[in-house]
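Task: fold both queries, return C-alpha cells.
Query 1:
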Amino acid sequence: MYFQWLKKIVAAAAFLMVANAQAGLITDVETVNKTVGFGASKSWTHNILDQGFILGSAQTATLTIEFRDDKDPWYAPFETALVQIGLFDLQDGGLVLNPTVDWTGGLGLSSLVKLNADGTLFVQVTSVLGDFIIGKSTLSVVTKDAQVPEPGTMMLFGLGLLGLAAARRKTAV
C-alpha cells in the first residue's frame, strides 16, 4: 500500500513540474478578407496584449497569411505579392511568387523586438503583379516559460504529500 501511495505522489509531482515548465503559446487571428488589386496594398496590425501577453516575453513568432486566387486565370502563374512585416529590412516578409497558397514566415529580430516592446505587429501585403484575395492572418507567438516553482518548493510539496500518506496509513492501521 505504501508503494502505491509513493507512485501516486511521484506521478503528481512530475505532472506539476511538466505542466508548469511548458512555454506559453499565444495565437492572434485577424480576418482580413480583402481583394488586393494590381499595385494596391492592404495592411493590418496584430495586437496580442488583450490575450495576456507580458511585454518582453516573446521568444519566437511565426505569421501565416491565407491567400486565395480571385479566379482570373490568364495571368495567375505570374501573380506576385510582397509581404512586409514590421519595417522593411529584408529579415521579415518576402516575395510571394504565387499568392494562391498560404504563406508562412518567421519574425526577424527587429519585428520580434517591436512585438516585445508594445505587443503589436504591423503587416502589409502589396500586389506587385496581379490580384488575389487575402484571407486570415494568424500570428503565433511562443513566450518564455511559465513561472516554474523552485525545486525546493516542489520538494516541500512532495514531503507534505508523503506526510499525509503516512498519517493516513497510521489511522488506517
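Query 1 returned. Query 2:
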Amino acid sequence: MGQTITLTASDGFKLGAYRADPAAPPKAAIVVIQEIFGVNSHIRNICDRLANKGYVAIAPAIFDHIEPDFQSGYSPDEVAVARKFVANPDWPAMLRDTQAAIDTVKDVGPVGVIGFCLGGSITYAAATKLSGLTAAVGYYGGAIVRFADDKPTVPTQLHFGEKDTGIPLADVETIKAKRPEVEVFIYPGAQHGFGCDERASYDKASSDLAWQRSLAFFSKKLK
C-alpha cells in the first residue's frame, strides 16, 4: 500500500524511503527505523500496519550511505552480512536521515518514531537529540544503555526481551535506573527480535502485547 520516495538530509545526501498513507485523513505521522536488515518486507509491513491505524508511516533507508536499497532476510548468512553494516556505525549520518524523514511528514501533524534493533537505538538517540518529535518507541536497542545518560525530550517507551543474548538484563536495569521517566517493558522468555514474524525468535504473545502497548502509547501522545 506504500510507495518509495526520496528524502534529502541536511548535508544534501539523498536517500530512499518507504511511505505508507492511510485511506482516511491521517491523525499523525510515525517514522519507522529499520533493523540492520534494511527497509525490508518486515519494516514495510510495519509501515502498512501503522497506515491501517490511521498514521502516515515513513521508513528512511539509513543504509543508503553504504549500499543503496540494501535489503536482507534473516538466515544466518544474511545476518552475518548485515552485521558488517554496523561494525562502525555512523550515528550522526543515521540521525540526519531520521531527521529528514521527520521533516518530510511534520506537515501531517504530531510525529512519533518507532525503531527495532539498530532502529531501537536510533529511536532513543532521536528522542534525545532531534527536533520535531512528540513521542518515541524503541524495541530491543542494544546501544540504548550507552546513551542512557541523555534524557529524552519527548515521552519514550522501550521494549526488551528477557532472554535477549545481546542485551543483558543488567543493561536494561541500568537504563531503568538512569531514566525513571521512560516506560520500560521486559517480556519474559522473549529473545532479540521477538517482534518480527519473519525471525526464528518471533514470540507472538510478546509481540502482540508490545504492539498493543506501542499503539496505545502513540494514541495517547500523538495528539
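Both queries returned. Flag for query 2: The two ends are 25 Å apart (CA to CA).
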